[in-house]
Each structure stands twice: as structure tokens, then as C-alpha cells.
Amino acid sequence: TDKKEIEDLLKTSSNGVFMTKPINNAYSFSGGNTNYAITFDKDDFIIPVNLLTAESKIKVTVYESGKTSVYDDCEVSKVNREGSTIDTFEAVISSKKLKKHEWKADSKITIEITYGDAYDKTVQIKYAVSKYEKGFLGLGYTVEFKAQ
Asked: Taking the chain (148 residues) in consecutive chunks of 10 residues, what is each chunk's mean pLDDT?
């Protein structure tokens, strides 16, 4: 069939033509894997490099107590190049504004990656606070996040 011939040409089920998984999946009839392993904590988050392009824009939206806060100053602060292929590289993403955010027990987070070089295709990953504890005498707090 035509779909099979196109899939075979693009090789989307294995390596694919594009290095960025979401863009590769957009040109696949099978859809590909859309579960992405991102590590999120209150100071920064880690995204596999193969989820980013040079034109990627990252935005974090926090929903809590009926209020929405948007952080669009996210940038790659470091790249961890463990292993020998791009599939093992990780980008550490930070935001000066997000670091100052005062988390709450009901916080829900959406990380949105927009690919400007792929017709503004987007990928969204959602998180929620899974553990929230105030520090001794109310000073500071500990917060952990879980993917939704």
C-alpha cells in the first residue's frame, strides 16, 4: 500500500528521517511513541535532547488555587552527554522566573515544547505535586512532582 511504502521510505518505526522524535512521529502513519521521559523538579527539569530542536520554545504553565502562571523564559543551561548516541543525551532546562515560584500542594504543571521549525507542532507533558512538606518552623519546603 502507499502508506507502507511511505513508512518504509521514512523509516519512522526505527530511526526515522528526523532526529527529533515528536517531529519524526508527525510524519508517521503509526503515530510512534508519545511517552516522553522528562524529569521535573522545583529548580529545573531535564529533557532528552532528541525531543528538542534549535527552534524549540519551552513554556511551563502552573495551575494552582484557580490561578495560572506562565513561564516562558526557559532555556537550555547545560547538556549532559552521557553515552555515545543522541538518544542518551539530556538537556537541563532552567528558568529564572520559575526558580522563584512558590509551589503549593495543589500545583499542576504543563510543559509545552513548540517546534517553530516544524509548523509550530507542540508536545505537552503534564505533572502534579505528589509530595509537599513545609520545613521546620515553616521555613522552606520540600516538593516532589509526578507525571500525569
From this structure: 57 51 51 66 86 89 95 94 84 94 91 80 87 74 82
CA within 13 Å, CB half, 134: 5
Burial 126-147 (b: 16+ CB within 10 A, else e): ebebeeeeeeeeeeeeebebee
- Separation of alpha carbons 70 and 32, rounded Å: 29
The whole-angstrom separation of Cα 51 and Cα 19 is 8
The C-alpha cell 532546562 sits at 93
Global pTM? 0.74
Nearest Cα to 145, choosing from 107, 102, 99? 107
